[in-house]
Design goal:
Keywords: Membrane, Transmembrane, Transmembrane helix
Shape: globular
GO molecular function: transmembrane transporter activity
Protein name: Putative MFS transporter
Structural class: mainly alpha
CATH superfamily of the largest domain: MFS general substrate transporter like domains
Pfam families: MFS_1 (PF07690)
Largest sheet: none
Order of helices and strands: HHHHHHHHHHHHHHHHHH
Organism: Actinoplanes missouriensis (strain ATCC 14538 / DSM 43046 / CBS 188.64 / JCM 3121 / NBRC 102363 / NCIMB 12654 / NRRL B-3342 / UNCC 431)
CATH architecture of the largest domain: Up-down Bundle
Number of strands: 0
Distance between the termini: 14 Å
CATH class of the largest domain: Mainly Alpha
Radius of gyration: 21 Å
Number of helices: 18
CATH topology of the largest domain: Growth Hormone, Chain: A
Length: 416
Protein backbone atom coordinates (compact mmCIF):
# COMPACT_ATOMS: atom_id res chain seq x y z
CA UNK A 1 0.00 0.00 0.00
CA UNK A 2 1.51 3.35 -1.03
CA UNK A 3 1.93 6.18 1.44
CA UNK A 4 -0.93 8.18 -0.08
CA UNK A 5 -3.27 5.18 -0.05
CA UNK A 6 -2.52 4.51 3.62
CA UNK A 7 -3.40 8.04 4.67
CA UNK A 8 -6.39 8.04 2.33
CA UNK A 9 -7.52 4.85 4.05
CA UNK A 10 -7.23 6.57 7.44
CA UNK A 11 -9.17 9.59 6.13
CA UNK A 12 -11.97 7.36 4.82
CA UNK A 13 -12.48 5.40 8.03
CA UNK A 14 -15.88 6.12 9.65
CA UNK A 15 -15.27 9.19 11.79
CA UNK A 16 -11.71 9.56 10.52
CA UNK A 17 -12.21 13.05 9.07
CA UNK A 18 -13.73 14.32 12.31
CA UNK A 19 -10.98 12.84 14.47
CA UNK A 20 -8.26 14.37 12.29
CA UNK A 21 -9.77 17.83 11.70
CA UNK A 22 -12.15 18.51 14.58
CA UNK A 23 -9.70 16.77 16.91
CA UNK A 24 -7.30 19.67 16.32
CA UNK A 25 -10.01 22.32 16.81
CA UNK A 26 -11.18 20.69 20.03
CA UNK A 27 -7.65 20.63 21.46
CA UNK A 28 -6.58 24.15 20.52
CA UNK A 29 -7.01 24.96 24.20
CA UNK A 30 -3.95 22.84 24.96
CA UNK A 31 -1.86 25.35 23.02
CA UNK A 32 -3.85 28.47 23.94
CA UNK A 33 -4.93 28.21 27.56
CA UNK A 34 -1.55 27.97 29.36
CA UNK A 35 -0.20 31.09 27.62
CA UNK A 36 -3.48 33.01 27.90
CA UNK A 37 -3.69 32.06 31.59
CA UNK A 38 -0.14 33.26 32.20
CA UNK A 39 -0.87 36.61 30.54
CA UNK A 40 -4.23 37.02 32.29
CA UNK A 41 -2.90 36.41 35.80
CA UNK A 42 0.19 38.56 35.20
CA UNK A 43 -2.01 41.37 33.88
CA UNK A 44 -4.33 41.02 36.88
CA UNK A 45 -1.70 40.81 39.62
CA UNK A 46 1.37 42.40 38.03
CA UNK A 47 3.43 39.41 39.18
CA UNK A 48 4.93 36.70 37.00
CA UNK A 49 5.39 34.55 40.10
CA UNK A 50 1.63 34.40 40.61
CA UNK A 51 1.12 33.77 36.89
CA UNK A 52 3.62 30.92 36.91
CA UNK A 53 2.00 29.41 40.00
CA UNK A 54 -1.41 29.56 38.32
CA UNK A 55 0.01 27.75 35.30
CA UNK A 56 1.43 25.06 37.57
CA UNK A 57 -1.90 24.65 39.37
CA UNK A 58 -3.69 24.26 36.02
CA UNK A 59 -1.26 21.65 34.71
CA UNK A 60 -1.01 19.60 37.90
CA UNK A 61 -4.78 19.57 38.50
CA UNK A 62 -5.27 18.15 35.02
CA UNK A 63 -2.46 15.64 35.42
CA UNK A 64 -3.82 14.41 38.76
CA UNK A 65 -7.44 13.97 37.65
CA UNK A 66 -7.03 12.69 34.09
CA UNK A 67 -6.43 9.02 35.07
CA UNK A 68 -9.70 9.09 37.02
CA UNK A 69 -11.52 10.41 33.96
CA UNK A 70 -9.81 7.73 31.88
CA UNK A 71 -10.96 4.94 34.19
CA UNK A 72 -14.51 6.25 34.10
CA UNK A 73 -14.34 6.34 30.30
CA UNK A 74 -13.23 2.70 30.28
CA UNK A 75 -16.18 1.75 32.49
CA UNK A 76 -19.04 3.73 30.92
CA UNK A 77 -17.66 4.78 27.54
CA UNK A 78 -15.91 7.97 26.47
CA UNK A 79 -18.97 9.93 25.32
CA UNK A 80 -20.51 10.69 28.75
CA UNK A 81 -17.15 11.88 30.11
CA UNK A 82 -16.52 14.06 27.07
CA UNK A 83 -20.02 15.56 27.22
CA UNK A 84 -19.71 16.42 30.91
CA UNK A 85 -16.24 17.94 30.70
CA UNK A 86 -17.11 19.76 27.46
CA UNK A 87 -19.51 21.85 29.54
CA UNK A 88 -17.67 22.00 32.87
CA UNK A 89 -14.30 23.13 31.49
CA UNK A 90 -15.60 26.21 29.62
CA UNK A 91 -17.69 27.15 32.66
CA UNK A 92 -14.55 27.01 34.82
CA UNK A 93 -12.65 29.19 32.34
CA UNK A 94 -15.54 31.67 32.39
CA UNK A 95 -15.40 31.72 36.19
CA UNK A 96 -11.65 32.32 35.97
CA UNK A 97 -12.17 35.35 33.75
CA UNK A 98 -14.82 36.72 36.12
CA UNK A 99 -12.54 36.19 39.12
CA UNK A 100 -9.72 38.03 37.36
CA UNK A 101 -11.93 41.11 37.00
CA UNK A 102 -11.75 41.52 40.78
CA UNK A 103 -8.03 42.26 40.65
CA UNK A 104 -5.18 40.87 42.73
CA UNK A 105 -7.42 40.63 45.79
CA UNK A 106 -9.26 37.77 44.10
CA UNK A 107 -6.12 35.67 43.70
CA UNK A 108 -7.41 32.76 45.86
CA UNK A 109 -10.54 32.57 43.68
CA UNK A 110 -8.38 32.76 40.56
CA UNK A 111 -6.35 29.79 41.78
CA UNK A 112 -9.52 27.85 42.63
CA UNK A 113 -11.06 28.47 39.20
CA UNK A 114 -7.73 27.57 37.59
CA UNK A 115 -7.61 24.26 39.46
CA UNK A 116 -11.19 23.41 38.46
CA UNK A 117 -10.45 24.31 34.83
CA UNK A 118 -7.40 22.05 34.79
CA UNK A 119 -9.21 19.19 36.51
CA UNK A 120 -12.16 19.33 34.08
CA UNK A 121 -10.25 19.54 30.80
CA UNK A 122 -11.80 16.85 28.54
CA UNK A 123 -9.67 13.70 28.14
CA UNK A 124 -9.69 14.27 24.38
CA UNK A 125 -6.24 13.01 23.49
CA UNK A 126 -6.79 9.74 25.34
CA UNK A 127 -10.25 9.27 23.80
CA UNK A 128 -9.05 10.06 20.28
CA UNK A 129 -6.04 7.74 20.46
CA UNK A 130 -8.20 5.03 21.98
CA UNK A 131 -10.64 5.51 19.08
CA UNK A 132 -7.85 5.11 16.52
CA UNK A 133 -6.74 1.93 18.29
CA UNK A 134 -10.29 0.56 18.12
CA UNK A 135 -10.81 1.59 14.49
CA UNK A 136 -7.56 0.18 13.09
CA UNK A 137 -7.23 -3.16 14.86
CA UNK A 138 -7.71 -5.34 11.76
CA UNK A 139 -6.94 -3.19 8.72
CA UNK A 140 -3.19 -2.55 8.96
CA UNK A 141 -3.66 1.22 9.29
CA UNK A 142 -2.82 1.70 12.96
CA UNK A 143 0.68 3.10 12.47
CA UNK A 144 -0.48 5.47 9.73
CA UNK A 145 -3.44 6.60 11.85
CA UNK A 146 -1.36 7.23 14.96
CA UNK A 147 1.32 8.97 12.89
CA UNK A 148 -1.29 11.27 11.35
CA UNK A 149 -2.77 11.97 14.79
CA UNK A 150 0.64 12.64 16.36
CA UNK A 151 1.86 14.83 13.49
CA UNK A 152 -1.33 16.90 13.21
CA UNK A 153 -1.36 17.31 16.99
CA UNK A 154 1.81 19.38 16.57
CA UNK A 155 -0.40 22.05 14.99
CA UNK A 156 -1.98 22.63 18.40
CA UNK A 157 1.35 23.86 19.76
CA UNK A 158 2.05 25.98 16.69
CA UNK A 159 -1.41 27.52 16.17
CA UNK A 160 -2.32 27.92 19.85
CA UNK A 161 0.32 30.52 20.81
CA UNK A 162 -0.15 32.28 17.45
CA UNK A 163 -3.88 32.65 18.11
CA UNK A 164 -3.21 34.03 21.59
CA UNK A 165 -0.81 36.55 20.08
CA UNK A 166 -3.44 37.53 17.51
CA UNK A 167 -6.09 38.08 20.19
CA UNK A 168 -3.64 40.19 22.18
CA UNK A 169 -2.95 42.37 19.14
CA UNK A 170 -6.66 42.77 18.39
CA UNK A 171 -8.06 43.24 21.90
CA UNK A 172 -5.12 43.60 24.26
CA UNK A 173 -7.03 41.38 26.70
CA UNK A 174 -5.89 37.76 27.28
CA UNK A 175 -9.41 36.97 28.49
CA UNK A 176 -10.56 37.04 24.85
CA UNK A 177 -8.07 34.29 24.01
CA UNK A 178 -9.10 32.28 27.06
CA UNK A 179 -12.80 32.50 26.20
CA UNK A 180 -12.09 31.60 22.57
CA UNK A 181 -10.23 28.50 23.76
CA UNK A 182 -13.27 27.65 25.89
CA UNK A 183 -15.58 27.91 22.86
CA UNK A 184 -13.26 25.75 20.73
CA UNK A 185 -13.14 23.11 23.46
CA UNK A 186 -16.92 23.15 23.90
CA UNK A 187 -17.80 22.89 20.20
CA UNK A 188 -15.05 20.45 19.26
CA UNK A 189 -15.57 18.12 22.21
CA UNK A 190 -19.34 17.94 21.72
CA UNK A 191 -18.78 17.15 18.03
CA UNK A 192 -16.32 14.35 18.78
CA UNK A 193 -18.51 12.92 21.55
CA UNK A 194 -21.27 12.37 18.97
CA UNK A 195 -19.13 10.02 16.88
CA UNK A 196 -20.33 6.40 16.87
CA UNK A 197 -16.91 5.18 18.03
CA UNK A 198 -17.42 7.31 21.16
CA UNK A 199 -21.19 6.96 21.63
CA UNK A 200 -21.64 3.29 20.85
CA UNK A 201 -18.65 1.88 22.65
CA UNK A 202 -19.93 0.92 26.08
CA UNK A 203 -17.66 -0.14 28.90
CA UNK A 204 -15.98 -3.51 28.72
CA UNK A 205 -17.79 -5.12 31.60
CA UNK A 206 -16.84 -5.93 35.15
CA UNK A 207 -14.52 -8.77 34.19
CA UNK A 208 -12.30 -6.45 32.15
CA UNK A 209 -12.69 -3.22 34.15
CA UNK A 210 -9.62 -1.74 35.77
CA UNK A 211 -9.25 -2.32 39.50
CA UNK A 212 -6.65 -1.09 41.94
CA UNK A 213 -3.62 0.12 40.01
CA UNK A 214 -5.32 -0.72 36.71
CA UNK A 215 -2.97 -0.44 33.70
CA UNK A 216 -0.03 0.28 36.00
CA UNK A 217 -0.01 -3.47 36.68
CA UNK A 218 0.19 -4.36 32.98
CA UNK A 219 3.51 -6.00 32.16
CA UNK A 220 5.83 -3.48 30.52
CA UNK A 221 3.58 -0.45 30.96
CA UNK A 222 5.41 1.05 33.99
CA UNK A 223 8.68 0.94 32.03
CA UNK A 224 6.95 2.61 29.10
CA UNK A 225 5.80 5.36 31.47
CA UNK A 226 9.42 5.88 32.56
CA UNK A 227 10.36 6.47 28.92
CA UNK A 228 7.38 8.79 28.41
CA UNK A 229 8.37 10.76 31.50
CA UNK A 230 11.89 11.15 30.11
CA UNK A 231 10.53 12.52 26.84
CA UNK A 232 8.34 14.90 28.85
CA UNK A 233 11.41 16.12 30.76
CA UNK A 234 13.19 16.82 27.47
CA UNK A 235 10.20 18.62 25.95
CA UNK A 236 9.74 20.75 29.06
CA UNK A 237 13.44 21.56 29.11
CA UNK A 238 13.35 22.57 25.45
CA UNK A 239 10.54 25.01 26.19
CA UNK A 240 12.95 26.85 28.50
CA UNK A 241 16.28 26.28 26.78
CA UNK A 242 15.38 27.29 23.22
CA UNK A 243 13.88 30.70 24.15
CA UNK A 244 16.84 31.27 26.49
CA UNK A 245 19.23 30.46 23.63
CA UNK A 246 17.39 32.92 21.38
CA UNK A 247 17.54 35.60 24.06
CA UNK A 248 21.25 35.14 24.70
CA UNK A 249 21.94 35.36 20.96
CA UNK A 250 19.95 38.57 20.49
CA UNK A 251 16.86 36.99 18.98
CA UNK A 252 14.36 37.86 21.70
CA UNK A 253 11.11 36.11 22.57
CA UNK A 254 9.84 36.08 18.98
CA UNK A 255 12.93 34.20 17.78
CA UNK A 256 12.40 31.62 20.52
CA UNK A 257 8.85 31.04 19.31
CA UNK A 258 10.03 30.65 15.72
CA UNK A 259 12.68 28.12 16.71
CA UNK A 260 10.18 26.04 18.68
CA UNK A 261 7.83 26.28 15.71
CA UNK A 262 10.37 24.88 13.25
CA UNK A 263 11.04 22.07 15.73
CA UNK A 264 7.35 21.21 15.48
CA UNK A 265 7.46 21.41 11.68
CA UNK A 266 10.35 18.95 11.60
CA UNK A 267 8.42 16.65 13.91
CA UNK A 268 5.31 16.75 11.71
CA UNK A 269 7.32 15.96 8.56
CA UNK A 270 9.07 13.06 10.27
CA UNK A 271 5.80 11.71 11.61
CA UNK A 272 4.01 11.77 8.25
CA UNK A 273 6.96 9.98 6.61
CA UNK A 274 7.27 7.40 9.39
CA UNK A 275 3.56 6.60 9.38
CA UNK A 276 3.86 4.86 6.01
CA UNK A 277 6.87 2.75 6.99
CA UNK A 278 6.54 -0.77 8.37
CA UNK A 279 9.91 -1.55 10.00
CA UNK A 280 10.64 -5.23 10.48
CA UNK A 281 12.08 -4.79 13.98
CA UNK A 282 9.97 -5.10 17.13
CA UNK A 283 8.18 -2.02 18.43
CA UNK A 284 10.37 -1.85 21.54
CA UNK A 285 13.50 -1.90 19.36
CA UNK A 286 12.07 0.86 17.18
CA UNK A 287 11.28 2.86 20.31
CA UNK A 288 14.79 2.42 21.70
CA UNK A 289 16.44 3.57 18.45
CA UNK A 290 14.10 6.56 18.13
CA UNK A 291 14.69 7.60 21.74
CA UNK A 292 18.43 7.34 21.13
CA UNK A 293 18.01 9.58 18.08
CA UNK A 294 16.03 12.15 20.08
CA UNK A 295 18.62 12.12 22.88
CA UNK A 296 21.50 12.48 20.43
CA UNK A 297 19.76 15.39 18.71
CA UNK A 298 19.73 17.28 22.02
CA UNK A 299 23.46 16.71 22.43
CA UNK A 300 24.01 18.08 18.92
CA UNK A 301 21.92 21.17 19.75
CA UNK A 302 24.42 21.99 22.49
CA UNK A 303 27.08 22.51 19.81
CA UNK A 304 25.17 24.94 17.58
CA UNK A 305 26.93 28.33 17.28
CA UNK A 306 24.00 30.54 16.18
CA UNK A 307 20.18 30.62 15.97
CA UNK A 308 20.31 29.79 12.25
CA UNK A 309 22.35 26.66 12.90
CA UNK A 310 20.14 25.80 15.86
CA UNK A 311 17.03 26.17 13.68
CA UNK A 312 18.46 23.81 11.06
CA UNK A 313 19.39 21.28 13.75
CA UNK A 314 15.92 21.58 15.31
CA UNK A 315 14.23 20.76 12.00
CA UNK A 316 16.42 17.69 11.52
CA UNK A 317 16.26 16.59 15.15
CA UNK A 318 12.54 17.32 15.29
CA UNK A 319 11.97 14.71 12.58
CA UNK A 320 12.62 12.04 15.24
CA UNK A 321 9.99 13.31 17.70
CA UNK A 322 6.68 12.35 16.08
CA UNK A 323 7.97 8.89 15.06
CA UNK A 324 8.99 8.26 18.69
CA UNK A 325 5.56 9.40 19.89
CA UNK A 326 3.84 7.26 17.24
CA UNK A 327 5.62 4.11 18.42
CA UNK A 328 5.00 5.13 22.02
CA UNK A 329 1.24 5.28 21.43
CA UNK A 330 1.32 2.06 19.42
CA UNK A 331 2.98 0.33 22.36
CA UNK A 332 0.12 1.32 24.66
CA UNK A 333 -2.27 -0.69 22.49
CA UNK A 334 0.16 -3.62 22.62
CA UNK A 335 0.88 -3.66 26.35
CA UNK A 336 -2.44 -2.72 27.97
CA UNK A 337 -5.69 -4.76 27.98
CA UNK A 338 -8.49 -3.25 25.88
CA UNK A 339 -10.65 -2.52 28.93
CA UNK A 340 -8.01 -0.17 30.36
CA UNK A 341 -6.87 1.77 27.30
CA UNK A 342 -8.52 5.11 28.11
CA UNK A 343 -6.95 5.14 31.56
CA UNK A 344 -3.61 4.04 30.10
CA UNK A 345 -3.58 6.91 27.61
CA UNK A 346 -4.45 9.39 30.36
CA UNK A 347 -1.53 8.07 32.42
CA UNK A 348 0.66 8.81 29.41
CA UNK A 349 -0.56 12.40 29.45
CA UNK A 350 -0.14 12.67 33.23
CA UNK A 351 3.48 11.52 33.36
CA UNK A 352 4.36 13.55 30.27
CA UNK A 353 2.96 16.75 31.80
CA UNK A 354 4.66 16.01 35.12
CA UNK A 355 7.96 15.30 33.39
CA UNK A 356 7.63 18.47 31.35
CA UNK A 357 7.10 20.56 34.47
CA UNK A 358 10.14 19.00 36.14
CA UNK A 359 12.26 19.34 33.01
CA UNK A 360 11.40 23.00 32.60
CA UNK A 361 12.21 23.74 36.24
CA UNK A 362 15.55 21.90 36.19
CA UNK A 363 16.55 23.38 32.84
CA UNK A 364 15.78 26.85 34.16
CA UNK A 365 18.19 26.34 37.05
CA UNK A 366 20.92 25.06 34.71
CA UNK A 367 20.43 27.86 32.18
CA UNK A 368 20.91 30.46 34.91
CA UNK A 369 24.40 29.13 35.65
CA UNK A 370 27.46 30.52 33.83
CA UNK A 371 27.74 28.76 30.45
CA UNK A 372 24.63 26.82 31.41
CA UNK A 373 23.01 26.60 27.96
CA UNK A 374 25.12 23.75 26.54
CA UNK A 375 24.81 21.83 29.80
CA UNK A 376 21.03 22.22 29.79
CA UNK A 377 20.86 20.66 26.31
CA UNK A 378 23.17 17.90 27.56
CA UNK A 379 20.90 17.32 30.57
CA UNK A 380 17.85 16.82 28.33
CA UNK A 381 19.77 14.54 25.98
CA UNK A 382 21.13 12.41 28.82
CA UNK A 383 17.65 11.86 30.27
CA UNK A 384 16.29 10.61 26.93
CA UNK A 385 19.34 8.42 26.30
CA UNK A 386 18.77 6.80 29.69
CA UNK A 387 15.18 6.09 28.61
CA UNK A 388 16.51 4.57 25.37
CA UNK A 389 18.59 2.19 27.48
CA UNK A 390 15.46 1.16 29.40
CA UNK A 391 13.54 0.50 26.17
CA UNK A 392 16.47 -1.43 24.68
CA UNK A 393 16.70 -4.03 27.46
CA UNK A 394 16.21 -7.31 25.52
CA UNK A 395 14.84 -9.14 28.56
CA UNK A 396 13.03 -6.15 30.02
CA UNK A 397 9.32 -6.22 30.77
CA UNK A 398 8.51 -4.01 27.77
CA UNK A 399 10.27 -6.35 25.34
CA UNK A 400 8.69 -9.46 26.90
CA UNK A 401 5.19 -7.99 26.81
CA UNK A 402 5.65 -6.77 23.23
CA UNK A 403 6.83 -10.20 22.07
CA UNK A 404 3.86 -11.89 23.77
CA UNK A 405 1.41 -9.40 22.24
CA UNK A 406 2.96 -9.83 18.79
CA UNK A 407 2.60 -13.61 19.06
CA UNK A 408 -1.02 -13.32 20.18
CA UNK A 409 -1.87 -10.87 17.40
CA UNK A 410 -0.16 -13.07 14.80
CA UNK A 411 -2.22 -16.04 15.99
CA UNK A 412 -5.48 -14.08 15.84
CA UNK A 413 -4.64 -12.48 12.49
CA UNK A 414 -4.80 -8.92 13.84
CA UNK A 415 -2.33 -6.47 12.33
CA UNK A 416 -0.91 -3.32 13.89
Amino acid sequence: MTALRQYLGVWQLPGGRVLLVVGILARLGIGMTPLALLLLVEQTTGRYAAAGLAGGVYALAGAALSPIAGRLADRIGAAPILLATAVLHPLALGALVLASRGGAGNLPWIFLATAVAGATYPPLTAAIRRAWTDMTGANGLRQAALAAETSLFELVFVLGPMLVAAFMVISGDPASALLSAAVATLVGTLWIARLPVMRHRAGHGADHAAKGLGPLRADGFPHLLICVTALGVAFGAAGVIVPAYAGQHGGGDSMGGVLLGVWGVGSAIGGIWFGTRRPAMALTHQFAWLLAAVGTSFLILALMPSPIWLGAALVIGGATLAPALTVENNLVGRLVPAGMLNEAYTWMVTVSVSGSAAGGAIAGVIVDQPDGLPWSFAFAGAVVLAAAAVAALPQGSMARADRLAAEQWATSGVRS
